[in-house]
């Protein structure tokens, strides 16, 4: 019965529609908004670079047998999020909405990264450096999420987070079929890199709007 209650609570959390922004801001309260942006941007760019390295390393070593077109045809689990796709759309998006999108993206990767860490650790032939990179990205994603939340609190006090999409790819990641398993991991790495690039880009443009009044 206890296990059933825990599973039930987890499912309710996965599909939560709106979550109040509430976090301990003690470590940030001495930082200016510009310093917060600088910290977040550096972290986002570093994370994006790591995810690119991981994706290239995985495909080079484990996804050679998978067709390039097939590997890039799968939809990312964050595709349901309405995200601006170019500078003009980003500029037209409200500040709080753009921050909420970034928060939704980061939250949507919480569980996939958790399972990606375990999957790479169990991957035959994987280098320890790959696992260390995945583990670091998992940690950086959580740190970045806190920093973006704090920026949102500063620019829009009392704001609530948007819904974030649930990830439904665990069965493929755990598949005993090697091609299915490798395809799922390759797609996760590709989507992760794409999303980290988005977050880094949004933060840079948002800093320009908030701190420099678009004079960058």
From TrEMBL:
SUPFAM superfamilies in UniProt: 4-helical cytokines
GO terms for cellular component: extracellular space
InterPro entries: 4_helix_cytokine-like_core (IPR009079), Somatotropin/Prolactin (IPR001400), Somatotropin_CS (IPR018116)
Gene Ontology terms: biological process: female pregnancy; mammary gland development; positive regulation of cell population proliferation; positive regulation of lactation; positive regulation of receptor signaling pathway via JAK-STAT; response to nutrient levels
Keyword line: Hormone, Secreted, Signal
TM spans (from-to): none
Annotated localization: Secreted
GO molecular function: hormone activity; prolactin receptor binding
Record has Signal as a keyword: yes
Coiled-coil blocks: none
Pfam families, A to Z: Hormone_1
Leader peptide range in chain numbering: 1-18
Top-rank taxon: Eukaryota
Family label: Belongs to the somatotropin/prolactin family.
Protein name stated in the entry: Prolactin-like
């Amino acid at each position: 019965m206890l296990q059933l209650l825990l599973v039930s609570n987890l499912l309710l959390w996965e599909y939560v529609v709106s979550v109040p922004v509430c976090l301990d801001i003690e470590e940030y309260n001495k930082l200016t908004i510009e310093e917060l942006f600088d910290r977040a941007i550096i972290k986002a760019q570093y994370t994006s670079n790591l995810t690119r390295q991981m994706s290239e390393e995985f495909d080079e070593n484990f996804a050679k047998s998978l067709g390039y077109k097939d590997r890039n045809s799968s939809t990312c689990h964050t595709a349901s999020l309405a995200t601006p796709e170019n500078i003009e759309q980003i500029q037209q998006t409200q500040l709080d909405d753009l921050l909420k999108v970034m928060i939704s993206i980061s939250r949507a990767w919480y569980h996939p990264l958790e399972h990606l860490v375990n999957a790479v650790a169990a991957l035959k032939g994987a280098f320890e450096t790959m696992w260390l990179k995945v583990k670091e990205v998992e940690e950086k994603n959580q740190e970045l999420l806190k920093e973006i939340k704090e920026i949102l609190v500063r620019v829009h006090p009392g704001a609530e987070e948007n819904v974030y999409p649930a990830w439904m790819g665990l069965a493929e990641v755990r598949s005993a079929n090697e091609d299915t398993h490798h395809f799922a991991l390759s797609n996760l790495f590709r989507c992760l890199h794409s999303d980290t690039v988005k977050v880094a880009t949004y933060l840079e443009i948002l800093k320009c709007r908030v701190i420099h009044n678009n004079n960058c």
